[in-house]
Amino acid sequence: MDEQELNSLLICEIENQHIDYRFGDWNNQIAWVSPLLGLGGYEIYARPFDHAHELSHIINHDNYRSGDCDTTNPNESRAHKEAILLLWDMFEKQGGDYSNFNLFIDITGCPYDFAFNIISNEFREMHEAINEIFEDEIKVSINKQEMREYIVDYISYFDVIETVSIYEFLDRYHLSHNFYEMAKKEFQQLLGTT
């Protein structure tokens, strides 16, 4: 899906929300909507991010505006976030992923840093939630001998060991951080430290 197709989809969705959304010169506003009046407009320079941002205002029935440059309004931050998440969802459904993040930015016109922070935070929250669900359902048990074998394998990659990051070790072998104390004791025994 290219930028033009994405713009067309978003404009159609805005119009489906009973908004008379028109193309034209709107006094230096790239895009705007007034859900209360059922009106909106956009300039030729409007990108998918701009349309998705306005769609968020419509869905949330935002009508309050402090002025032309209303950056402190919490509705604006929420609309930015929701626009990015909506566009990311559409991008993923078309086969896009994190390896194509720059393409996502090019097609949608999302602010890079803001989009990166929101998408990586959403992914991290989703990953943590999935781990919480499965951590209770899947009880991983490991005995001292298995832990020792993992540690010996881990140590074999180093010529000289000055410090050991136990969390890095656990992550490398896909072990729960719940095994921190067990791993710490085994490292101490194998390396002769206390």
UniProtKB/TrEMBL annotation:
**What's the domain of life for this entry?**
Bacteria
Q: What is this protein called?
A: Phage protein
